[in-house]
Amino acid sequence: SPHVLFFEPLIRMLKKEGAEFLITARPYQQTIELLKHKELDHKIIGKHYGKNKFRK
Fold first, then answer.
1. Could you give the CA distance from residue 8 to residue 53 in angstroms, rounded to a whole number?
2. Per residue in 2-54, pLDDT tens?
3. Which of 2, 6, 21, 24 allows an S-S link to 45, with CB 3.0 to 4.6 Å?
4. How far apart are CA 52 and CA 39, in angstroms?
5. pTM, whole model, 2 decimals?
6. Are 10 and 3 in contact (CB under 8 A)?
7. Alpha helices in 17-56 (DSSP H)
């Protein structure tokens, strides 16, 4: 999932300005591993529901 790589610079910049964040993520693809690797505090919410759009 490219979201971690896309938002990381923005999150770090805004944190330097004093902003606070609550990063949430579903355990999908490499998202959690990337958050850990980038040392971004996060909370795992929900689960991956597959391709079923109704369950999302």
1. 27
2. 899 999 999 999 999 999 989 999 888 899 999 999 999 999 998 765 666 56
3. 24
4. 31
5. 0.72
6. no
7. 31-37
What is the C-alpha separation between 16 and 37, in angstroms, rounded?
20
Which residues make beta-bridge pairs with 8? none
Geometric angle at alpha carbon 15, from 46 and 20, rounded to 5°: 50
Token pair 């919410």 is found at 45
User: Any residues with CB less than 8 A from the CB of 8 and at least 6 apart, and which?
Assistant: 38, 40
Helices (H), 1-56: 3-16, 31-37
The end-to-end CA distance of the chain, in Å, is 16
Task: Give the per-residue pLDDT at 29.
Answer: 82
